[in-house]
Amino acid sequence: MSFFRKIGIQIQSFKFFIRNKLHDRQRKNFLAHDEKLVQKLSANKRIPSWQQFKYISEYLNKTERVLVRILTGVVIVSVACLLINIYWTHSAVLPKAGGTYTEGLVGAPRFINPLFSSSSDVDLDLSALIYSGLLKYTNAGLVKDLASDYQISSDQKIYTFQLRQNVKWHDAENFTANDVIFTFNRINDQKSKTPLYFTFRGVSVEKVDDFTVRFILAEPFAPFLESLTVGILPEHIWNNIQPENMTMAEYNLKPVGTGAYKFKSLIKNKNGNIKSFNLARNDAYYETPGYIDELTFKFNQTFEQAVEALNNKSVEGISYLPKEIRGRIINNRNLNFNLLQLPQYTAAFFNYRNNPVLKDVAIRKLLSHGVNKEKIVNEILNAEAKIIDSPVLEGSLGFTQDFTKFPFNPEYAKAELEKAGWVLSDYKKTTKVAEGSEATTTEEYPYQVRKKKDNYLEFNLTTVNQPENVAIAKELQKDWQQIGAKINLVVVDTNKIQDTLKNRDYEILLYGQILGFDPDPYPFWHSNQESYPGLNLTSLNNPTIDTLLDDARKTADEGKRAAKYSEFQKLLAESAPAIFLFNPTYTYPQNKKIKGFNTERLILPANRFNQITSWYIKTQRDWQK
User: Which of 72, 109, 184, 558 is 20 to 30 A from 45 in CA distance terms?
Assistant: First the structure.
C-alpha cells in the first residue's frame, strides 16, 4: 500500500469518527429537549404549550395523525357554521336601491296635470307619481303629505295648514305657500276649465306666511279634507301660462312636481303617439326616496293587448286585470295577483218615474228577494267581490248591519206576488203596426209573465256594454224570470252611457258607483242630486234622509256622523230604491320580482302607487339594529 493511500484511509476514518460524534451529540440534545418538554407537562400545567404542539406529530402514528386532521377539520367547520348561524340570526334581508319596473297601461297620457287628470286613469296614474298634495291616502287613512300639520276651527269653516320646509321641485326650486295659493286660485278660475272647479267652488284660500295657508269655507263641510289630496302645481312654471291655455302647455306631458318620481323621457311612435313614458327616482324627495331607479309605462289600446304584453314579458305588470280575461294570463307562477279593496259598489237602481209598477215599494222589495247575489259573486266574479246590502261599505264610517235585508228567497217572492194579485199569464202586448190602428200580438216568449190588471211585471234593465256588466245583467234577467217577471236587456255603449245617465233614460240601471275615502252618501242619495250632474240615480226623495245627510256633512264629530249614517241606512232599506249587489275587488297583477307592495285599499286606481317608495327589486343582507 502506498503512503498516499494510507493517508487517504486515515482521513476517511477521521471523517467517519467526527460524523458519529456529531450525531451522538445531536441525539443527546434531542432527547434532552424531549425530556424538557415532557417535564413541562406538570400537574400544574396539563395543557401543552404551542412549542410542545409543534412536535406532537413526532409522537403520533399514521392513523393518529389522520384522526387529528379529521377532528381539526370538524372543529373548523363547526366554528364556521356557528359564525354563519350567528350572522343569519342577527341579520336580515333588506331592500337595496336599484332595478327598473315596467307597467302596461290602457289608454294614453294627455294631461299629466292634477287639475285636468280626473277624467283619465292614465293621467291620474302618472300624476300620482309626479305630484304631491297637502294630504295623501295610505293604509292608515288620510295622512299629511306636503302639509306638516293642520288645524280646523271650532266652527269647521277655517282650515289652517303648515307646510313642509324641506321640499324641492324636480327642477330644484323651493316649494312654498305661493305654490299652494296659485294652484287653488287656478282651480277657482273658470277660465282654466278644470273639473275641480265645482269641488272648490265657494272655497277661498289665503297666504298666512311662506309656509302657512288658510282655506275658508262658506259653510261646514266634513269631507273637505279629502279634497286636499289634489296635486300642487309649481307657480314659477305655470304662472307664465294663461289659465285658458293650460291644457295646451307642454308641461302637461313634461311635468315638474314634488313627488317620489320625476319625468325623464317619453318615446313616440311614427304616428306621433306616445309609446312609452319614463320616470326616474327623485333622490331629493322630502321623505325617504324610493328604491326602484326607474319606472317605465307602456300604453295599450285594450286590456287584451296589455295582457298579451304581460305574457310576452314586455311589461312586468298591468294597471288592472278584468276578471273576464284573467284566463288569458299564461305565466301565473311568476305573478302576484294583488286583490285590493275599492270604495265602490254595483247595484240595480230603480227609476220608478219611468215605470209606474216600480213605484210600489213592495214590488221593489220582492225583486230584491229574487236576486241570487251569491251566484253572481261566486260564478261571474270568481269570488273576487263581497256581497253587500247597503251603500255604506264595511269599514266605512257609520257602517251597520242593523237594518232590514231582503235575502234570496224566490219562493217567498212568488207567493207574495200571488197574494198581491200578480198572476201568471201568457204574454200579450198591444202594439201599433200603423198610424191610427192597433194590433194585438203574442210574442214567442217561452215563459208566462205575471200580470195585474193591465200591467205586466215587465221592466227594461239597462247596463253598460262591458263583459262583466252584461253577464250580471243576464243573470238578473234569469233570476227575475223565475219569479214571473219579463226583463228586456238594454246594453249601452261605453261612449253613450253618460247620455243615458244624464237623461235618466232607464227603468232599472245596473251600474257601479265610486265613493271617496269619506263615505259621504250625500251626492248619491240626497233629493237635490236627482237631476244631472247629480248622482242620485233613483227616484228617491225622502225629506228625513235629506236632513240626516245635510247634518252629517256639517259636523266633524265622527260619532255623530256615524250615528246619522246608521240611521240613513235603516231608512234607505225601508225605501228599497236599489238592490245593492256587491263591493268589487281590484286585481293588480305584478311580476314577483317586485317586493314591498303593501297597499290594501284604493280610492282610485292611481292609489296603488301611494306607497311606491316601499317597493323594491334588489336586496342585501345586513346586521339588524
Answer: 72
